[in-house]
Specification:
Layout (H helix, E strand, L loop, with lengths): L9 H4 L2 H17 L3 H17 L4 H25 L3 H6 L4 E6 L2 E4 H27 L2 H10 L4 H30 L10 H32 L18 H23 L10
Antiparallel strand pairs: 1-2
Helix pairs in contact: 2-6, 2-10, 3-6, 4-6, 7-8, 8-9
Length: 272
């Protein structure tokens, strides 16, 4: 289940709003630059933070493998549709392997795609840390504390809680279909499993719509939104470490923009 997992690690103790601000700032910093030195630093930082979060591999293995497959497909697609893009970016061409036509392998193309890999390593662990170490209720109360409407905060909290609910519903529907004799487990072929997954989507959508109707009705009966302010059962105060983390995130984004200025563009070019 990809959702909040209670724990007592350093990242669990950090305020939810602090983690969101850091996630946004660092993601923007990583997405706007192709400086390999900077991306190596943020990749190591994200993996290190993931390690100290004490998140078990079994909790994220499926998601990580799923993301890895699509990342590899994306890298292959980049090469297939534009195999000489790296040579254009770095204004250089160092051929490693002579292919056919425009499909030859160059150091510049490999370097560009290596930067793409670093971008994945820089951002994906941060997203997983945020999802798995942030209590939705505590996060919503923190957002409300900095001036965001509690209606918006509650919507964000429901969205975060909804991820594991969707997963539970998916597995329930899958188990029900297998109990009726429709094999979509690991024993079945890949094509049959894909078709089985597609048949789950429709009842999943219907159950999601039904759940949304139940939640909205319950909120209306409790007069949600009738007052301008509300109290929170779960609330965490900002501490010194939260301000330091946000300041560090701002510095990281500042370094990213500074490197863009020094490199006279988004790309660090070691071939010039």
């Amino acid at each position: 289940m990809l959702g909040y997992i209670p724990g007592n690690s350093f990242m669990h103790r950090v305020n939810g709003t602090t983690k969101l601000v850091a996630l946004i700032l660092i993601s923007v910093a990583c997405m706007t630059t192709y400086d390999t030195r900077f991306l190596l630093f943020t990749s190591v930082l994200s993996i290190l933070l993931f390690k100290i979060s004490h998140i078990k591999w079994s909790d994220v293995s499926f998601v990580v493998k799923f993301i890895a497959v699509f990342s590899v497909l994306n890298l292959l697609a980049v090469y297939l549709f534009s195999p000489q893009y790296g040579t254009v970016l770095y204004d250089s061409k160092t051929v490693i392997w002579e292919g056919f036509g425009r499909f030859n392998l160059t150091q510049e193309q490999l370097f560009y795609e290596f930067n793409l890999v670093l971008k994945y390593l820089s951002t994906i662990p941060f997203v997983l840390i945020f999802l798995l170490t942030t209590n939705p209720s505590e996060f919503a109360s923190s957002l409300n504390k900095i001036g965001i409407s509690y209606k918006v905060c509650y919507s964000v909290s429901l969205a975060i809680r909804y991820i594991p609910d969707i997963q539970v519903t998916y597995f329930d529907i899958s188990s029900a279909q297998q109990a009726r004799g429709y094999e979509i487990s690991k024993k079945a072929s890949l094509l049959k499993r894909v078709k089985g997954a597609m048949t789950i989507v429709f009842p999943l959508i219907l159950s999601s719509l039904e759940r949304i109707e139940v939640i909205s009705t319950a909120m209306e009966l409790r007069r949600f939104g009738n007052h301008k302010k509300r109290t929170w059962y779960s609330e965490k105060k900002f501490e010194k470490v939260d301000f330091l983390i946000m300041l560090f995130s701002v510095l990281i984004m500042g370094v990213s923009f500074t490197l863009i200025y020094l490199n006279q563009g988004r790309f660090y070019n070691p071939f010039s």
